Amino acid sequence: MGITVENVSKQFGTFKAVDEVSVEIKTGSLVALLGPSGSGKSTLLRLIAGLEKPDSGKILLTGKDATSASVQDRHVGFVFQHYALFKHLTIRKNIGFGLEIAKWKKSRIDDRVNELLDLVQLRGLGDRYPSQLSGGQRQRVALARSLAIEPNVLLLDEPFGALDAKVRKDLRVWLRHLHDKVNVTTVFVTHDQEEAMEVSDELVVMNHGKVEQVGSPAEIYDHPATPFVMGFIGPVNVLPSHSQIFQSNGIDPTRSETFLRPHDILIETVPEAASAPATLERLVHLGWEIQAELTLEDGQAVNVFLTREKFDELNLKPKQRVYLKPKKAKSFVLQDA
Ligand SMILES: Nc1ncnc2c1ncn2[C@@H]1O[C@H](COP(=O)(O)OP(=O)(O)OP(=O)(O)O)[C@@H](O)[C@H]1O
């Protein structure tokens, strides 16, 4: 009942930006559209908003066919990467803009704007102008403005993309809390997998205009459906399936590639059954975690992440000979060309 996208395609010239996409977004959920640049995320969001018309397929909003409805009739809230606030209007006026257009009474607008200023934690700044706010504060105003009309769905296109890393991280947490309060069905475009995993209930992973996989962050991380998803979500070593690290580990050597998360490799200083010798090339200290860059005897490079505790216990040094054992690896059945 939230948003249903049924077999939607959109082509620009001969280029298929969105290619027969079907997705179901549950009422009240927060869903991230995640994928590399050019994968069709923004186009899909714009199709849901009514800013683009699909070449084929259907879009249902709250159960009703909205495929040919105008942007206004869809009743969606939209926030873009670059805050499109009106510079010459105060924050209050910006937030209340849609309500004035909808001809709400002044006293009702004042009440609603106060409520929204509280919601986005900007009470006290209502009489300022956009230029007197930080980037993060401006994006919160843009969100308040899009929520003012009580939209059926909220569509966010890289809303924090132009902000610095720290502000961006704070706003993710803030957005999640905000969503838990207002519960409006929200679709959030990002190319940042960490952001998508932290904020959303479900991820829709896109590549080349198609949906590769839909699922919760944990499902997608633990059970990636395709090599693309495995490589895109989280760090991964991609090794030939005949690599010596997989010998005696039950990996079918006829598969061409096997994916191995750096967290899923054990590193030991003494050989064990089914462990593969490797040379420790470099150690990168990432705070509480250590990244070890290694080379197997067949010349293959492998990254392993280990906790500080394990690192201290092993007392690792560059150029040391160590032994690797995969705990969990994944290979995919090759599609027929
Ligand atoms: N109006 C348009 N005319 C022509 N091509 C377009 C148009 N809009 C998008 N495209 C193309 O469609 C493809 C998908 O674009 P889209 O913006 O949906 O990708 P995206 O996944 O959101 O990427 P990004 O993360 O870089 O914004 C791109 O190759 C883009 O150049």
From TrEMBL:
InterPro entries in the record, alphabetically?
A: AAA+_ATPase, ABC_SmlMolc_Importer, ABC_transporter-like_ATP-bd, ABC_transporter-like_CS, Mo/tungstate-bd_C_term_dom, P-loop_NTPase, Sulph_transpt1, Transp-assoc_OB_typ1
Q: Give all residue intervals belonging to the ABC transporter domain.
A: 3-233
Q: One GO molecular function term? A: ATP binding
Entry superkingdom: Bacteria
Query: What CDD domains does the record point to?
Result: ABC_CysA_sulfate_importer
User: Which sequence ranges form a coiled-coil region, renumbered to this chain?
Assistant: none
Membrane topology term: Peripheral membrane protein
User: Which keywords are on file for this protein?
Assistant: ATP-binding, Nucleotide-binding, Sulfate transport, Translocase, Transport
List the SUPFAM superfamilies hit by this protein, alphabetically. MOP-like, P-loop containing nucleoside triphosphate hydrolases
Q: Which Pfam families match?
A: ABC_tran, TOBE
Keyword Translocase part of the UniProt annotation: yes
Indicate where this protein resides in the cell. Cell inner membrane
**Which SMART domains does the record cross-reference, listed alphabetically?**
AAA
In Swiss-Prot or TrEMBL terms, this protein is called Sulfate/molybdate ABC transporter ATP-binding protein
